From TrEMBL:
It comes from Nitrincola lacisaponensis. GO terms for biological process: transmembrane transport. Belongs to the phosphate/phosphite/phosphonate binding protein family. Keywords: Signal. This is Phosphonate ABC transporter phosphate-binding periplasmic component. It comes from the Bacteria. NCBIfam families: 3A0109s03R. InterPro entries: PhnD. The keyword Cytoplasm does not apply.
Length: 321
C-alpha cells in the first residue's frame, strides 16, 4: 500500500497501484516509458508497428462513479455502435475503483475508457491514456460543479459550520471529491483536514451523497452531475440535502484510448464517439438531467489545465513506478 501526501503533510492510505502521490516532483510528467514529441502532454503512439495493439475484442470501461450494472445497460447501445464502426467486438468492463481502471489500462487489459476528471492526469501520465472527447450540452458548453452538501437538519449553514464535524471525500484521485475541495477549504477558509474537521473517504460520489442523507457524514464534497443523475432515478429526493458551497465549472469525464492502440483502430474509435446518435439513446436518457447531448473534441493540454493547476496548488503530483 502506498501513501497519499496532502498539502498539510499528513498521510492517508491510498492503494493506488505502484504509484505514489508526492510533493516533490514536477506535475503532469509522463512516465519515462512514454514519449511526447509533439508537446501535447499525452503519450505518442509507438513508431514501431510491432508495438501497436490490435485486439479482436476492445475492452471499454466507464469511470466507477456509481453502480456498474446500471451503466452496463446505459452504454450498451453505444458499444454496439462502436462495434459497427470498428468491426471489433466491444466488451464492457465494470470496474469497481479508479485504481482497478488505471491498472487495467496500464497492464494492457483496457483499450478505451472514460476516466473521471481528477484521475485523468494519473491515467495520462502513468497509463498512457489519450483523452480526445467528453460529453457536452447541445450548445457546446460542458462541465459540472463541485458542491459541498449536508442534511437540512444538520445545523450546517455555511462552510465554517463544518469545523469540528465530519466531511466525506470520495477518493484521493477525484477532482471534485477530494483535490478541489481540499485546496478550497485551506485557501479560502483556512480549514485543514484532521485539524478543523474529520475527513473520510467514501469510495464514490454516490456513497458520499447517500452517506450524508443516512447520517454517516455531516457533509460531503461531491460532483453535482452525479447528484443530478441520482435525483433523476429517484435514488435521492431533492429535499433530503442542502448545498452550502458550489464551485467553478470543471471539465467532466474524459474519454479516450490507450496510447499504443493501432492508429487506424484509434481513428475508428474516435469516429464511433463523434458519429453516435444521441437521440433516443440510453445515454441521452441517463445524462439528460445534466444536459449532455453530444461528444465534443477536447485536448488534455487545454481542457485539463484547471485540474493540473489545482494539483500544483496542492503540491500534488503522480510518480509512476
Amino acid at each position: 500500500m502506498r501513501m497519499l501526501t496532502t498539502m498539510t503533510g499528513k498521510t492517508l492510505a491510498a492503494g493506488l497501484l505502484a504509484m505514489t502521490v508526492s510533493m516533490t516532483l514536477q506535475a503532469s510528467d509522463l512516465a519515462p516509458r512514454f514519449t511526447d514529441a509533439d508537446g501535447d502532454m499525452v503519450a505518442d503512439a509507438p513508431t514501431d508497428p510491432a508495438q501497436w495493439v490490435d485486439p479482436n475484442t476492445l475492452v471499454f470501461a466507464y469511470t466507477p462513479v456509481e453502480d456498474p450494472a446500471v451503466y452496463a445497460q446505459v452504454w450498451d447501445g453505444f458499444l454496439k455502435h462502436m462495434e459497427a464502426v470498428t468491426g471489433k467486438r466491444v466488451q464492457f468492463f465494470p470496474v469497481q475503483s479508479n485504481a482497478a481502471q488505471l491498472e487495467a489500462m496500464r497492464a494492457g487489459r483496457l483499450h478505451v475508457a472514460g476516466f473521471n476528471t481528477g484521475s485523468n492526469p494519473l491515467a495520462v501520465n502513468c497509463a498512457g491514456f489519450v483523452p480526445f472527447t467528453m460529453m457536452a450540452r447541445e450548445d457546446g458548453s460542458f462541465g459540472y460543479e463541485m458542491e459541498i452538501i449536508t442534511r437540512p437538519d444538520s445545523g450546517i449553514e455555511s462552510i465554517e459550520d463544518i469545523r469540528g464535524r465530519s466531511l466525506a471525500f470520495t477518493a484521493p484521485t477525484s477532482n471534485s471529491g477530494f483535490k478541489a475541495p481540499s485546496a478550497l477549504l485551506e485557501a479560502e477558509f483556512g480549514m485543514v483536514a484532521e485539524q478543523d474537521f474529520q475527513p473520510s473517504f467514501s469510495g464514490g460520489h454516490d456513497n458520499s451523497i447517500l452517506g450524508v442523507i443516512n447520517r454517516d457524514y455531516d457533509a460531503a464534497a461531491i460532483a453535482n452531475s452525479v447528484l443530478k443523475r441520482m435525483i433523476s432515478r429517484d435514488v435521492v429526493k431533492p429535499d433530503s440535502y442542502t448545498t452550502v458551497y458550489t464551485s467553478q465549472t470543471f471539465p467532466t469525464t474524459g474519454y479516450g484510448h490507450v496510447y499504443n492502440l493501432k492508429p487506424e483502430l484509434a481513428e475508428k474509435v474516435k469516429e464511433a464517439f463523434f458519429t453516435f446518435e444521441w437521440e433516443g439513446s440510453a445515454l441521452q436518457e441517463e445524462f439528460k438531467n445534466s444536459g449532455e447531448a453530444q461528444f465534443i473534441p477536447i485536448t488534455y493540454k487545454e481542457h485539463w489545465e484547471v485540474v493540473r493547476t489545482i494539483d500544483q496548488a496542492m503540491g500534488v503530483t503522480y510518480n509512476c513506478n
